[in-house]
Amino acid sequence: MYPSLRHFEKGISKCKQWMGGDQKPAGMGSHTEDTLKKLEAALKSFHQSKAVFVNLSICTDFNILKIHSMNHYTASIYLFGSADGFNTEVPECLHIDLAKWAYRASNRQDYVIQMTTWLQCQDYHLPP
Question: Which residues constitute the domain of residue 62?
Answer without folding.
Answer: 29-80
